[in-house]
Amino acid sequence: MTLWTPGGPDLVVEGDNGRVLPTLPDGVFQMIYIDPPFNTGKRQTRQAMTTTRSSGGSRVGFKGQSYETVKGLITGYDDAFDDYWSFLEPRLEEAWRLLKPSGTLYLHLDYRESHYAKVLLDALFGRESFLNEIIWAYDYGARSKSKWPAKHDNILVYVKDPKNYYFDTDEVDREPYMAPGLVTPEKAARGKLPTDVWWHTIVSPTGKEKTGYATQKPEGVVRRMVAASSAPDDWVLDFFAGSGTLGAVASSLGRRFVLVDRNPEAIRVMRGRLVKGDQLLRRPIEFRTASSSVVRWSA
Questions:
Q1: In CATH, what number is assigned to the domain containing residue 230?
Q2: Are residues 271 and 239 in the same domain?
């Protein structure tokens, strides 16, 4: 029984995606982006921090003013699975079913699991459906002295039909040329299309985009995918939605979205982040819950 159709409002579902995905109809999503747990074996946490002016603060800043740092809510999840691929494989099978014939899947992992995912997706989608491996490179965080520091994520891109998929380079943001003197002034002013290596900073710890949610991904990275692989009014899906970055980007670009996450803290963050964006577009957004045993939807 289908409990959702693409004629309604944007949708956020709190529930186990393994139970929610089978209730969604075939072939309705132009793009699926998922950023599942990376199976690091660690607990991922992030604590919100704010700095306020205080006469008794221990830090001295601009013009001799004293400040104190206030610790906020800790968010996190366990990023460890006894059998990671028995967890992820059925969800990737569902992703193939849910994509439109012209649709694209972006699977965001890191170096620990991406090579296994490539083999699995070759089997599920067909090797000819592999479009790209995107390397998202950044330069922030700890520095190992015993090996080359790992400062990139891997994003595998698969299309459902390699002979008929949607990809619009005109909508993609452009980058400065690394050697602008080697091209014409007109080309230098316009910039170049990105390659499969994307240099983009992480979410700034002090920026307005930051939600405090662990492993939040920057909108600039996700925006490039949405712009290239979907058109206005297309439906996009993220069933490991986390802080709701795909929804925020979709709203800003005029796409429709369905987001799924089982973490109540993720739902709380998304509610605060997304409702304002959809109200600016005068478009409704609906939050629903699905039970963990039998999938039942409630507004």
A1: 3.40.50.150
A2: yes
Pair 57, 146 in one domain: no
> Are residue 252 and residue 113 in the same domain, yes or no?
yes
- Does residue 73 sit in the same domain as residue 153? no
Task: Based on the fold, state whether residues 158 and 264 are members of the same structural domain.
Answer: yes
Query: Are 204 and 217 in the same domain?
Result: yes
Query: DSSP letter string over the chain?
Result: -----TTS-EEEEES-HHHHGGGSPTT-EEEEEE------SEEEEEEEEEEEE-TT-SEE-GGG-EEEEEEEEEEEEEE--TTHHHHHHHHHHHHHHHEEEEEEEEEEE-TTTHHHHHHHHHHHH-GGGEEEEEEEE---S---SSS----EEEEEEEES-TTS----GGGSPPB--SSGGGS-HHHHHH-B---SEEE-----TTSTT----TTPPPHHHHHHHHHHH--TT-EEEESS-TTTHHHHHHHHHT-EEEEEES-HHHHHHHHHHHHHHHHHTT--EEEEEE-SSS--EE-
pLDDT tens per residue across span 192-203: 999 999 999 988
pLDDT of residue 86: 84
- More confident site: 159 or 147: 159
Rounded distance, CA 96 to CA 103, Å? Answer: 9
- Distance spanning both ends of the chain, measured CA to CA: 18
